[in-house]
Amino acid sequence: MTDIIKAIENIAVEIYEAIKTKDTGKVDSCNVSGDVQVKLDVISDEIVEKHLLKVKSIKEIISEEKETPITKEEGEYFVAYDPLDGSSLIDVDLSVGSIFGIYKDGYNGKNIKASVYVVYGPRVEMVVARDVVELFRLNENTKTFEFVKELKLKEKGKILGPGGTQAKWFDFHKKMIDELFMEGYRLRYSGGMVPDLHQILLKEGGLFAYPATTDKLKGKLRKLFEVFPFAYTYKKAGGEAVDGFKDLLTLKADGYHDTTPCFFGSRYEIDKVLKTYEKNKEKLKG
Ligand code: P6P
Predict the structure, then answer these.
(1) What residues are in contact with ligand 1 under a 6 Å CB criterion?
(2) CA of 73 to the centre of ligand 1 (A)
(3) How far is the CA of 208 from the centre of ligand 1 (A)?
(4) Is the Cβ–Cβ distance between 113 and 77 less than 8 Å?
(5) Residue 285's pLDDT band (cuts 50, 70, 90)
(6) H or E stretch including 39?
(7) Which domains does the chain have, with CATH numbers?
(8) How far, in Å, are 10, 143, 163 from residue 189 at the CA level?
């Protein structure tokens, strides 16, 4: 697996260079999930594909930007990736990221064996979750990533990232979010999953929510490319990750681009989510 992580380091350096130098304009196409693509989505996807297909231990790769996987003769790992998550934030100069889920024998939650994400912000940082969660930072002079520290979540945090269109939240979800703010939580939400979840991890606690909404009962975020990798990371850091009722890593993927409501955070906050959703589960049945 170290060969995959080394390839991701090289990918991150190249994507970072592209972000700094390439056109951030839109292309007249959408990805499989219907997201409008920017040129950097396509460029980043090409960079990831180029590097990952050279890695001997990889059997198959699938991109959030593509409909189906690319399969090789050799290898054992399946890598699902979002090459440039939140790319629409680039033209307002906000942080974006790349997300990689490393799986074996399939793409269900139970198949994930490691996750890696990269944040392209004021600094370029990479977080690798295997048995523990490790933070690395790009040394721009040597173009190499240097270990910084292990990341752990405390029992409770102070920040809250409430995703989704608020006009479409279920009433019980809005009440839960309001209660947390009344407890003193501070709003931290940029619209980029990678920097938003990275912030909670580095601040050692809090809650990120992208719930079911009245118009999208299955939420927006994609299981293979976004949800399972961050669920793995948060659980390895001592936190929890649920769909409102159960551990996200117990879920199966119903197709490559399946989505799910998702909550990532410290134990105290996730416990509040589970209690709230259990009490209101009938309302989600429509
Ligand atoms: P909304 C970016 O498009 C993304 O996929 C995630 O990075 C982010 O968490 C979410 O969508 C933001 O969605 O509906 O708040 O704009």
Answers:
(1) 85-86, 163-164, 191-193, 220
(2) 35
(3) 12
(4) yes
(5) confident
(6) helix 39-52
(7) 2-150 (3.30.540.10), 159-284 (3.40.190.80)
(8) 29, 30, 7
* Tokens standing for residue 277: 């959703």
167 CA distance to ligand 1 middle (Å): 16
The residues pairing with 61 across neighbouring beta strands, listed in sequence order, are 70, 79
State the distance from the centre of ligand 1 to the C-alpha of 87, rounded, in angstroms. Answer: 10
In tens, the pLDDT along 99-141 reads: 999 999 999 999 999 999 999 999 999 999 999 999 999 999 9
Q: Is the pLDDT of residue 67 over 70?
A: yes
Ligand 1 atom 2, closest CA: 86
Mean pLDDT, the chain, integer: 96
**What are the DSSP E strand ranges found in 76-192?**
77-85, 96-104, 112-120, 124-129, 133-139, 144-150, 159-162, 186-187
The pLDDT assigned to 21 comes to 87
| Tally: H helices and E strands in the chain | 6, 15
**DSSP letter string, 188-236:** ---S-HHHHHHHHHHTT--EEEE--BSS-TT-SSBIIIIIHHHHHHHHH
